[in-house]
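Input set for joint prediction.
Command: fold jointly, output tokens.
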Amino acid sequence: MTDGAIGLAGIDYAIVLIYLAGVVLVGTWFARWVRSPGDLFLAGRGLPFWAVGMSIVVSDIGATDFIAVAGGTYRYGLAQANFDWIGSMPALLVAAFLFVPLYWRARVYTIPEFLGRRYNEAVRTFLALAWGLILIANLAIMLYATSILLGSLLGWDPLVSIWVAALVVGIYTTSGGLAAVVMTDVVQLVVMFVGGTALVIRAVWEAGGPAAIRERVVERGPELADHLNLLLPHDSPTPFPWSGILLGLGIVLSTAYFSGNQVVVQRALGAKSEWDAKAGVLFAAFFKLFIPLLVAVPGLAALVLLPELDRPDAAVPELIRLLLPPGLRGLMFAAFLAALMSSVDSTLNSASTLWTQDVVLKAYRGIARRELPERRALVVGRVLSVAFLLAAALLAPEIERRFGNVYNAIQTMFSLIQGPTLAILLLGVTWRRATGWGGLAGLASGVGLAVVLNLPSMAGIFRAQEPFLFVAWWSFVFSLVVTVAVSLVTPQGGDHRPEAAVTGYGS
Amino acid sequence: MRSFLQAVLGPFDALLGAIPLEAARWIVVGFFLIAGAGALLVPRAFVFRGAPDDRWHRDLRLWAILVLLPYLLIYAFL
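tokens >
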């Protein structure tokens, strides 16, 4: 066992094994109803609102969130909680009342498919390839991060961790599809909340309660002066000044994430009615309210209980080792696994959906001039899922070795594309005059500006340490302006089909 | 390119820097209020579309306001 490993007793392993067996059983049970790509990728459009909402929340929270958000709170304070508060609620309202109903009515499988109908096939192909590659890379990063997490918590060999996680998730995701993913997500949300709550209650109790934590943080003086503030000054040296939180996170990144990210939106597309799709998204907003309590509060409690930590990310593993008895450790570890598996299974299913619908089936249609039969399309979806999982598991150990800090690179890749995607989505559903050329120009130029702003020569142009929030905001604004300008000088014709998407509350 | 971008983005950056933190808090609260008002303005027919019936507890505008309220209080008072 490595230094820092929390160690599990026999009862903890029993709890973890029961949890894993339960998830695989629940997941594979849904395989009997999978007969077509619609069943595999959209759960046959039969999901109730509560399953949609719980799945959205749990797909968003990864195992590393427990570690990294608590670590971020230990280092920067409560401002870290903005990602689940202002970074969720307004965006989820926009998703529920603007975008999701349109997607659901269009009966599409993917966001690029929707934008292809609204603008043109070039926009669809650009986005499908970009998102498809990002999701596969993200899958590999998740598996790699998981191996690091399990190695530091339990002392497991990284390769064993990667293949065990890939095998368990692969079995139920490829057989049961979205229904299996969503229903196991429901179980995983419960396990995550129970395990996380056990740690929070114990940590806050040991620290003397919320009032004592507040008092002790204030006592530490200027060093922790901003730790209890949600909003930090514009010139704050942290990555979270209020201006970036409002403009970059609250307006752009969170809206793009909840309305334009295939992993999130796919659950709502599988809802059994338009009302369930909208209600599911709002139900997710309710659960998001509690996420900072699970993942950020332990970081504050650690400031009192473990004031001299060298690495902030060690806060949660140290609290587990210090405070949780055998049994509860197993529960907390099951919560980690739940957070991990729910993110990996969702990303895998969505990557497979994107490539099947927007790349393989589209290419087949273009070459053969007919549709691929449903049973064969189902086989394509399953083969792609297995292939992506194998590729991600094989890539995972190589990634850090070859590319250095890839986790940050992936976050940057997401920030390159989310602002421009939101810009053309927003104009596409609210402005009939937006043309196919406008959408393509807006998308390409927005991504281009985001790339330029991330160049090393642009360092220091923003005051924040890691300015991804401002990059997202400006690439969004630029993309909006270019889409409008090009749309005004290009003809409405050819591929231009505003009726395919433009919102109408009266209709 | 760098100097051009600085010239374009600089005034906006200076403007944000001039806003006191307490005012920023109320700007953020206003952002939540606008989101809530937007939800209330959604027509009833749109809200209930696809619902099994139109009883009051299926009114998603009500759901939106109930869920929004705790967030609003957090940013107004925490």
